[in-house]
Amino acid sequence: GSCVTGRHPYRYGIFWADTGHLPAGEITLAQALKTRGYSTGHFGKWHLGPVKSESPTSPGAMGFDEWLSHDNFFELGGHSLLVVR
Questions:
Q1: Residues in the chain, pLDDT under 50
Q2: Helix, strand, or coil (residue 2)
Q3: What is the pLDDT of residue 68?
Q4: What is the pTM of this model?
Q5: Is the alpha carbon torsion for 5, 46, 44, 15 positive or negative?
Q6: Which stretch of DSSP H or E encloses residue 41?
Q7: For residues 33 and 8, is the Cβ–Cβ distance under 8 A?
Q8: In angstroms, how far is the first alpha carbon of the chain from the final one?
Q9: Of the candidates 20, 23, 25, 78, which lies 20 to 30 Å from 5 by C-alpha distance?
Q10: What DSSP element (H or E) covers 43?
Q11: C-alpha neighbours within 13 Å on the C-beta side of residue 61
Q12: What's the burial of 52, exposed, middle or buried (CB within 10 Å: 0-12/13-18/19+)?
């Protein structure tokens, strides 16, 4: 979350590892860069919430134009989910 928002986890309510997701209202660096004409992408493990496209914390909802990401395997009982957009 810190790499995506530029903020310390305490600022957006995460005080211990594995205790929540990035709040949907957080402004990400990808969103900020988009206002300046940049395209952004995320490739790899997404520790910030579900990667499903309908999730408010998916890479797309957080401002990334392209992504190939998987979540923490919790949603699918041990199987990863890949989303290609």
A1: 78-80
A2: helix
A3: 87
A4: 0.74
A5: positive
A6: strand 41-45
A7: no
A8: 21
A9: 78
A10: strand 41-45
A11: 18
A12: middle
Listing from the earlier edge strand, what are the strands of the sheet with 83-84? 41-45, 66-70, 83-84
pLDDT at position 29? 94
With CA atoms as reference, report the closest residue to 25 among 1, 43, 3, 52: 1
Contact call for residues 83 and 36 (beta carbons, < 8 A): no
Q: What share of the chain is helix, strand, coil (3-state, %, to 5)?
A: 15, 15, 70
Total count of residues recorded for the chain? 85
CA distance linking residue 77 with residue 25, whole number of Å: 28
**pLDDT at position 9:** 83
**DSSP conformational letter for 17:** T
Task: Specify the residue for token string 């205790």.
Answer: 19
